[in-house]
Amino acid sequence: MRRSDRYSHGTSDVLELLEKPDTKGPVDPEHADAFADAFGGFPYAYGASGDRPHCVWQEVTWSLFDAHLAGVTPIGIYPMVYDPWHHVGGPEAFDDNRRYQRSRDRDLWRCKWGVVDIDASTDARTGQGTEAEVLDAGFAIQAELGTGAWVERTRSGGIHVWLFVDDWVRCDDMRGFLANAVHHSGADIDGIFPRADECSGPPGNFVRLPYFGNAPHGRQTMVDGWGEPIPLAVFLEELTAE
Fold first, then answer.
1. Model's pTM, two decimal places?
2. Contact, 44 vs 57, CB < 8 A?
3. DSSP 203
4. CB-neighbour burial class of residue 63 (10 A; exposed 0-12, middle 13-18, buried 19+)
């Protein structure tokens, strides 16, 4: 899938920011294409995932992914998409109150990825364990999930276990599959995304994306079996080969 196939380019200030000297520099277009394909979700809102996370009701454009990877603007994506095939109007078919006519039809709520969230304990927050313990828990869940599962060290030192699939699957099926893997792994977790099987309308709950260009070293990156960062290009190459 190329840029014109799923998201509009978007213009405006984002592209100007990408040219500023204090960013990571130009993003390889092929990397941005593959990244946006992998993390596709609700196309009409995204999460502003900085220090004050909130929902931004704006079309998700390729420029947003570029800006994220370049270290300009961190974003999160909403995994739940209503009727991605446009059988009954598509994800844009919500009314003025942001409700869908058949919102309780679970067969219409789909996703292309899911996440298991595990928090590391800090001085300010009680999580599921130390950074080392939650990493081990993430690897245990990854082993249960098999192909398509990746472990990310998050910006706060916790773990996201991502599962990517080739097509739109029901949100309740994704949640059930992830919950089953967690059960068999014996891991203690904070939660699962998507957060629900269905909802009255968009957008649900967003997940911060990995590979923000200005994240501290070793944070917001997929990691290998030793906990070492996996470069973006390597992650994308291996993901698309699965």
1. 0.88
2. yes
3. -
4. buried
